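Protein data sheet
==================
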Amino acid sequence: MEVLENPIEPQTAEARMQALVRRHAKAGNAGIKVLNMIGGQAESLLDRLPVAVRHRLNDATEEALTAAMAAAHRSRGVVPENTVWMSRAMTTAMGAAGGWGGLGSALAELPFTTTVLLRAIQDVAVTHGFNPEEPGVRFDCVQVFAAAGPLDHDDGADLAFLSTRMAVTGATVQALVARVAPRLATVLGQKLAAQTVPVLGAAAGAATNYAYTAYYQQMAHVHFGLRRLAIEADRDHADVIAEFRERVEGRLADRS
């Protein structure tokens, strides 16, 4: 991947690594607040969805992600890069609208939220000096969706998305989407279930969308921050990820 001219703020490699570890630690905070608000556990949320919706979730997510890839890319020529808060405000408003009408409106809102999330991830890539027009960067943006999600952020499982790589060719586009979709389907299924909690409705929709946007922005910073660090430190990317994983797992062990 080529790095654009806009430089990131100069820091030592050690300081940047520590900052990325802290970002990872903060990523799930909003998700914890959502779970406290709806009074549930991430593992039980999917059980609240009708069986027919659960069976359709994988296909619906794959369709939404495929459409989001095209729409987010097209939007770059029309909509300027969004600030962190603009992206969160947009998805929060859409989540409130989706949650207001129950499951039907929440399902209809899903592709739009997925597009804004993907665009927010692309904007983070730009802040780290990567060009979202480059196929490899666009694929990496989709790969961020393979992270565990804000409602499952408790065991370091969200680090797996950092390690997987695919050769970037036209033939791998759908393969990438198909690989990411099952993980994202689980994550978005939890979101849909939270939006349909009785009484809370729009509030739960707004809160979950805010949490999801904040989470994926943070994970995008981790993903592209590690890539940039590897390039500038002239280190193997896999070695940088291994060091990062050790530090995150050490931090988790210290908390337990």
Notes: Residues 248 and 254 are 10 Å apart (CA to CA).
